[in-house]
Amino acid sequence: MLFRLRPSSASESARHKVAVTAALAQQKIEEGSVAAAPFEPEDGCVVEGEDVVVCGAPHACRLIAGSALRCADPVVDDWIEWSETIFAPAVAALVASFEGSPVRALPPSRPVVERDEFSFLLGAFTPPPNGVPAAAKAAISKTWPLMAALEGFLATDNSDPTLAHALLGVDAVYALPAWAPGSFPRVEALVARLPSVDLRPASLERGTDESPTKFVTRLFAAAIARAFPQLEWPDPAVMRCANDKFGDYQCNAPMSIFKALKGAAKSPRAVGEAIVASIPANQFVASTSVAPAGFVNTVLRSEILSAFAVSVARSGAVPAPPLSAFGGKRQVLVDFSSPNVAKEMHVGHLRSTIIGDTVCRVLEYCGHEVRRVNHLGDWGTQFGMLITHLETAYPDFTENPPNITDLTTFYKDAKKRFDADPEFKDKSRARVVTLQAGDPRSLEIWRLLCDLSRKEFDKVYERLDVALNEYGESYYNDMIPGTIEELERKGLVSDENGAACIHLPNHGFPLIVRKSDGGYGYDSTDAAAVRHRLIDLGCDWLVYITDVGQQEHFHMVFEMARAAGWTRDDVRLRHVGFGVVQGLDGKRFRTRSSETTRLVDLLDEAVVRMEASLVDRVKDGKCSLSDDKVKEAAAVVGYGAVKYFDLHQHPATNYKFSYDKMLSTSGNTAVYLLYSHARLASIIRKSGLDVPTLVVQDLVHHPKERQLAFELSLFVDVVEAVANDYLPNRLCDYLYRLSTKFTDFVTDCKVLGDPRQSERLVLCEATGVVMRQAFTLLGIKYLMQI
Ligand code: ARG
Fold first, then answer.
1. What is the CA(473)–ligand 1 centre distance, in A?
2. Ligand 1 centroid – CA 507 distance (Å)
3. Among 338, 343, 376, which is best to mutate for testing ligand 1, by the most ligand atoms less than 8 A from CB?
4. Among 153, 402, 487, 676, which is most exposed with the fewest C-beta within 10 angstroms?
5. Distance, CA 721 to ligand 1 centroid (Å)?
6. pLDDT value at position 187?
7. What is the DSSP string of 702-743?
């Protein structure tokens, strides 16, 4: 049987009384000398399995009333109240009234609440002795009876402390310091025998790099653990307030805790109040309020928000999440983009490139070592066909290299011949073997093809401003045999009609690491690559970014890696699968010239359209850019728009590619955001001041100032979340929300020429810093003027 305490009262002496009583009760129950008394649900008590939890003074009293407390007066609860409102203030008054009296130091007590009736006590105790200074009589008259009566009671009763003794004893603890030592020897002895309970709420301090959200979460976790230790509640469910009016954060746990208590608590609100009473002392929370549904609204001290914004504006940088949030600095490898040589680089690869780049940027920003790997499809059986086609269709290709700008057509022609011409087919197959055997001429042609493709891919990377290191499939070729050998040694390979297969539980098909003709395919390369990355490179975090269709393939590769013992518990292996890009008709996306899909054209089209819209704005006087600046701005905004349109969708969903939507100046688009950033920059420019160096007071007075500053403080949480779940759309949503808050702020708060101009400018500056950091993480360039 476990006897635990849940203090329900915020007042210290009442909680102390319950705590000591509970501790003693637990001792006694453990010894078997007392059985837990029945409780009444309205006491707010909790019985969970074997645990008896004392939740409040009424229950403590009820526990002891029937047997242990030898007192005729039935209203034991009154004792608690009496000692709260009469006794304790009297002790305090006693201390305050006399210098040099027998009275010694006593901690300051709560304000006096007058209450006349303490029938139980008045009847039980004797009047104050003579010899006490007259002026003290009134006060003394209230503590003396307890002490004298208790001393007398203990003289006749020398039994082990009962729960009643505990109740009396705690009051005595408060009264004793007021009397000279030795005045009440028996009471002193009793007090010495009571269990000591430390009631001070442990104070919590925010870690230097702990985000406000994390700190508040930790604060509530501690409060819940104190208030409801028996529940071992896992998640305080702290989030930003649904409505800014009520505060910054809300703790949503009370409702579910109330349900888990199965009727033992009075209401969700009572649960919320119990949590509030248990919040550790801290420098962070300004106030809390409990909503009728129980959740606890929390307002941070404005100085905290203000200081954060000031430091961002001053330093021009936003803190990144600490490495400790990831278990230290990680060796990450992100496998993304990865188009295939001589095949079209389609919008799927565009998604992989855009999402992958943001994932890399976020992880780099967090301080990890990040390898950006382009797993180019530059090996495999199609090369037999391509080489043969090149040789026969362009026999003088070495002297006169063909200008194959459109490799896709080249690929299709080769494929046509391959399917139609058996002789060509045989030649092609033989050519794969010579290529793989290292025949110099085959390799030369292969290289030529790769170079041609690479040029085309690089145009896309250049427009997108994405850095990648090419480690194509061919890079792993030599590692494959050793990898298969190792897998065989580890008993993971089974032979199926000559093919080397790896069966993994819960998958309907195996990974084929060597085909029956001895050839190596996609699975073979990925087996060697995953081993190389984990073992040779020592990476402890691998991320692969492809369409969702390949999800199972990668899960199988990861399971194989685990089965082969190439991972540790802390190694993260993740596949990020994304959905299909569709045309407006809902079908898989194709660019206008249906035959060939040139991603470069697709990207450039956005710029062309953007330029047209900027030119219109210039004509309408809405924009003051000069002609050469219009071109530059169109490129920044156009490419940014394509990226943002992709990134702001949840990766797993399909989306319809729409220039009109992505280039819209309103709503959650890059165009809107870049405009709103430029507007911000122009306010700062117009001030003519060196804003980061302005001397400012508190930045957050007006509610809109506060909401903006609070939003700024959430950036670090968003970055951490994206680093952990690879959902760049979170960052986009954040940026959009921030920008909305900024608009609200400048709408309601005049910046230039206002008495609070300096403060407001600093807030603008901090917003600018955060927005630019967010753009950078999304791989979007920004402009200071549009
Ligand atoms: N080349 C593949 C494709 O176009 C993507 C490669 C992904 N990475 C890998 N290690 N398999 O679908």
1. 9
2. 20
3. 338
4. 402
5. 26
6. 85
7. SHHHHHHHHHHHTHHHHHHHHHHH--HHHHHHHHHHHHHHHH
Mark the ranges of the chain whose per-residue pLDDT is less than 50. Answer: 1-11, 36-77, 94-95, 97-138, 592-596
Q: Give the per-residue pLDDT at 90.
A: 56
pTM: 0.78
Distance separating alpha carbons of residues 710 and 643, to the nearest angstrom: 27
502: left (phi over 0), alpha (psi -120 to 50) or beta: beta
Counting from 1 in the atom list of ligand 1, the atom nearest the Cα of 343 is 4
pLDDT tens readout for residues 269-287:
989 988 888 888 888 999 9
Report the separation in Å between the CA atom of 50 and the middle of ligand 1, taken as the mean of its atom positions. Answer: 56
Q: What is the pLDDT of residue 594?
A: 45
Question: Residue 724 has which token pair?
Answer: 């952990």
Dihedral angle computed from the Cα positions of residues 504, 558, 655 and 770, in that order, rounded to the nearest 10 degrees: 160
For ligand 1, mutation pick of 374, 477, 550 (most atoms within 8 Å of CB): 550
- The pLDDT tens digits for 199-209 are 555 688 888 88
Instruction: Supply the CATH classification number for the domain 212-300.
Output: 3.30.1360.70
Q: Which residues, other chains included, contact 493 with Cβ-Cβ below 8 Å and sequence gap of 6+?
A: 484, 487, 500, 501, 502, 513
pLDDT at 197: 64
Residue carrying the six token digits 């649900």? 41
Ligand 1 atom 5, closest CA:
338
Q: List beta partners, residue 120.
A: none
Distance in Å, CA 375 to ligand 1 centroid: 6
Q: What is the pLDDT of residue 244?
A: 87
Taking each helix axis from N to C terminus, what angle separates 440-464 and 407-420, rounded to the nearest 10 degrees? 140
CATH number for the domain whose boundaries are 331-489+518-581:
3.40.50.620
Selecting from 1.10.8.60, 3.40.50.720, 1.10.730.10, 3.40.50.300, what CATH number does the domain 644-777 have?
Answer: 1.10.730.10
Q: 474, 533, 539, 546: which to mutate for ligand 1, most atoms within 8 A of CB?
A: 546
Question: Domain extents for the chain?
Answer: 2-192, 212-300, 331-489+518-581, 644-777
How far apart are the CA of 377 and the centre of ligand 1, in A?
7
Tell me the C-alpha to C-alpha distance, in Å, between residue 677 and each of 443, 672, 739, 774, 784: 51, 9, 8, 11, 7
- Give residue 209 CA to ligand 1 midpoint distance, Å: 38
**Which residues line ligand 1 at a C-beta cut-off of 6 Å?**
335, 338-340, 375, 377, 526, 529, 544, 546
* Atom 9 of ligand 1, residue of closest alpha carbon: 375
The residues near 456 (Cβ < 8 Å, ≥ 6 apart) are: 345, 405, 407, 600
Cβ-Cβ contacts under 8 Å for 315 (sequence gap 6 or more): none
Rounded-to-integer distance, Cα 205 and Cα 720, Å: 21
Which residues share a beta bridge with 656? Answer: 582
Mention every residue, 6+ apart, whose C-beta is less than 8 A from residue 277: 7, 8, 9, 10, 227
Index of the ligand 1 atom closest to the CA of residue 550? 12
CA 450–ligand 1 middle distance (angstroms):
16
Return d(Cα 130, Cα 128) in angstroms, integer: 7
Do the domains at 212-300 and 331-489+518-581 have one common CATH topology? no
